[in-house]
Design goal:
The structure is a single chain. It contains eight helices and seven strands; from the N terminus they run H-H-H-H-E-H-E-H-E-E-H-E-H-E-E. By secondary structure, the protein is an alpha/beta fold. The longest helix has 13 residues. The two termini are 29 Å apart. It binds S-adenosylmethionine (SAM).
Length: 206
């Protein structure tokens, strides 16, 4: 568990998606349980305060591991109709719910996708201003290294990413060493310690 796991390159077929879902089995950490839990977890989560200086109108944001969309709608409000929020989760149930809510609430700037964070091929290289990955990596049983590579691929050179751990190891999948290893691939702008469980990062210059 202390090392990054390695996923072969390439698209995830439906068999791999199912395997990944089975391995991301803990419903509490993956929050594929009842949606009301989101409201409990979201209460007091300072993620939006931490990122507010980095997200603005017109931006493209990727909310990866968006769950039931606890933050997707807030982010959509911030970017406005000129912007866009990709709401991505491995759980189709969550994504279908977001799609229904977005239709009902007339949010045309949310683009929901049932997909793995390890394979975001529907998002172009260097096209995203901000990646919001709140509680994602600690919920991923496999494919974390590929997910981090995808964050780097889709971010614009001027972009930022918010990476946070809902739970530390052994309750979440990311150990102290792995967290340090992930962050060493970025420029850490704010946060960053394993104890804090979050970091605001940007890309390292090439
Ligand atoms: C702790 S929840 C966080 C939900 C949301 N970001 C929030 O802050 O309320 C983690 C989410 O990551 C999703 N997830 C787990 N593995 C994933 C993967 N490989 N790709 C995309 N989403 C994944 C789970 O389904 C779950 O909805």
């Amino acid at each position: 568990m202390s090392k990054l796991d390695v996923r072969p390159e390439g698209k995830l077929d439906s068999h791999s998606m199912e395997k990944e879902k089975r391995r991301t089995s803990h419903w509490l950490f993956s929050r594929r349980g009842p949606a009301f839990l989101d409201r409990i977890f979201r209460y007091g989560d300072p993620a939006l305060q931490r990122i507010q200086a980095y997200v603005t109108r017109g931006q493209t944001i990727a909310d990866i591991g968006c769950g039931w969309g606890a933050f997707s709608f807030d982010l959509a409000d911030i970017v406005g109709t000129e912007g866009k929020v990709y709401a991505v989760d491995l759980s189709r149930k969550c994504v279908d719910q977001i799609r229904m809510d977005a239709d009902r609430r007339s949010y045309s700037n949310i683009e929901p996708h049932a997909a793995s964070a390890a394979d975001l091929t529907f998002i172009k290289d260097r096209s995203v201003d901000f990646v919001f990955a709140n509680g994602l990596l600690c919920s991923m049983a496999i494919g974390r290294q590929a997910a981090v590579a995808e964050v780097k691929r889709i971010l614009k050179p001027s972009g930022y990413a918010y990476l946070s751990l809902g739970m530390r190891y052994p309750f979440g999948y990311v150990s102290h060493d792995e967290w340090e290893s992930i962050l060493s691939g970025f420029k850490v702008q704010r946060g960053g310690s394993y104890r804090e469980k979050w970091a605001l990062v940007s890309l390292k210059e090439e």
